């Protein structure tokens, strides 16, 4: 006899009509796959994994933080992190026509120029970061505790909110000296139990299902260009800590 699991976690409502897709980036069918179908699957699995536990009533963000150090809860972390990342990604989007009317706020623009030199340089930094993610993953623009901006890349369901779960390197491939130094730096932070207070301002979805329907198997670069032109800077501006 199967137990019926309560759907504690449900799909958030986005600020735009998903039935129309996101003109210039997602056709209606592609948006249904990448948002509605994928998010439904993730939150259903998450609900099933946390039923009757202390994580049952927590939101995905708090669940991922609560399970990041638990090897026996890796599957729960993955579901929660993926649900959060996917929502962050889609909540930052709008049509190309609407996006063209928005821009970084003066406060965010100042931070971008301090770290990257210009908005165009930030765009280029995102493109360069995608080369470090082989297969599925995410690229994040983060605000660090010192208010400086940075870019973090994560494979699979990695997160920018926990040093031990950034998953910034593909350990299935060769590891360079720079990669090893990066791993050692992260391990030092983990051993010291250093807190991670990063705030994610922006996420780029590099999972193949996000672009293959509209851009094809080799269309990742075109997809990234279309993504950049669909950013809702008003949403991104609001995430900057003031």
Automatic annotation (TrEMBL):
GO terms for molecular function: metal ion binding; superoxide dismutase activity. It holds the Pfam family Sod_Fe_C. The keyword DNA-binding does not apply. The keyword Translocase does not apply. Keywords: Ribonucleoprotein, Ribosomal protein. GO terms for cellular component: cytoplasm; ribosome. This is 37S ribosomal protein S26, mitochondrial. Transmembrane segments: none annotated. Component of the mitochondrial ribosome (mitoribosome), a dedicated translation machinery responsible for the synthesis of mitochondrial genome-encoded proteins, including at least some of the essential transmembrane subunits of the mitochondrial respiratory chain. The mitoribosomes are attached to the mitochondrial inner membrane and translation products are cotranslationally integrated into the membrane. Residues 105-163, 184-239 form the Manganese/iron superoxide dismutase C-terminal domain. It comes from Wickerhamiella sorbophila.
